[in-house]
UniProtKB/TrEMBL annotation:
<dbReference type="InterPro" id="IPR013766">
    <property type="entry name" value="Thioredoxin_domain"/>
</dbReference>
<dbReference type="InterPro" id="IPR036249">
    <property type="entry name" value="Thioredoxin-like_sf"/>
</dbReference>
<dbReference type="GO" id="GO:0006457">
    <property type="term" value="P:protein folding"/>
</dbReference>
<protein>
    <recommendedName>
        <fullName>Thioredoxin domain-containing protein</fullName>
    </recommendedName>
</protein>
<dbReference type="GO" id="GO:0003756">
    <property type="term" value="F:protein disulfide isomerase activity"/>
</dbReference>
<keyword id="KW-0732">Signal</keyword>
<feature type="domain" description="Thioredoxin">
    <location>
        <begin position="3"/>
        <end position="57"/>
    </location>
</feature>
<dbReference type="InterPro" id="IPR051063">
    <property type="entry name" value="PDI"/>
</dbReference>
<dbReference type="Pfam" id="PF00085">
    <property type="entry name" value="Thioredoxin"/>
</dbReference>
<dbReference type="GO" id="GO:0005783">
    <property type="term" value="C:endoplasmic reticulum"/>
</dbReference>
<comment type="similarity">
    <text>Belongs to the protein disulfide isomerase family.</text>
</comment>
Length: 62
């Protein structure tokens, strides 16, 4: 997965406008944003590494 998916976090207390614009309704919320402004997909699965990795591989394509 190195070089294929970037991971970032946002402090919604410090950046409330950004979080509101993205529809953040609770914490933690995880989203995948497609390349070049592509689609936004919310992740609702488990929080274990293998589950997160499987989701990232599925949505990021070959």
């Amino acid at each position: 997965m190195r070089g294929k998916v970037d991971v970032a976090e946002v402090d919604c207390e410090a950046h409330g406008a950004l979080c509101r614009s993205q529809g953040i309704t609770g914490y933690p919320m995880l989203f995948y944003y497609g390349a070049n402004g592509g689609s936004k997909t919310e992740y609702t699965g488990g929080r274990k590494l293998e589950q997160l990795k499987a989701f990232a591989e599925k949505v990021s394509g070959p």
